[in-house]
Amino acid sequence: MRNSAGLPQYTYDLHGLCVTAAVREVRVLIAEANARRRTGVKAPCSYCFVTGSGQYGNDSRIKAVLKNYCTGSGLRYEDVDGATIKIIARPYR
Fold it and tell me: How large is the average pLDDT for residues 36-40?
């Protein structure tokens, strides 16, 4: 997944993705960051995902599913605003 133009670094726009594709993209980013950290390569500690506010269908479901994914995976998350979620990648221990 590439960062959308005009968004801050490590911020990704999930608009237009189905729920399954959005979760897959998030899982890949988190897994890649954790793999880099395990090998000693610097990687981001958190990512922000713009999910939308839920006015157009899938947007609100994506955010809810991402929260469930984080809870089930032991990841912390923060609601940045009504349309964005910040996921803190699990630090390498």
Answer: 89
In CATH, the architecture of 11-88 is 2-Layer Sandwich (3.30)
| 64-91 average pLDDT score | 90
Quickly count: other Cβ atoms within 10 Å of residue 58's Cβ: 19
Q: What residue has token string 């610097």?
A: 42
Domain boundaries, the chain: 11-88
CA distances from 70 to 37, 78, 84 (A): 19, 10, 14
Task: Calculate the CA 70 to chain-centre distance.
Answer: 9
Phi, psi of 47 (to 5 degrees): -135, 145
User: What is the structure's pLDDT at 56?
Assistant: 61
Is this structure's pTM higher than 0.85? no
Q: Are 70 and 26 in contact (CB under 8 A)?
A: no
Please, are residues 69 and 85 in contact by the beta-carbon 8 Å criterion?
no
Mean pLDDT computed over 15-21 = 88
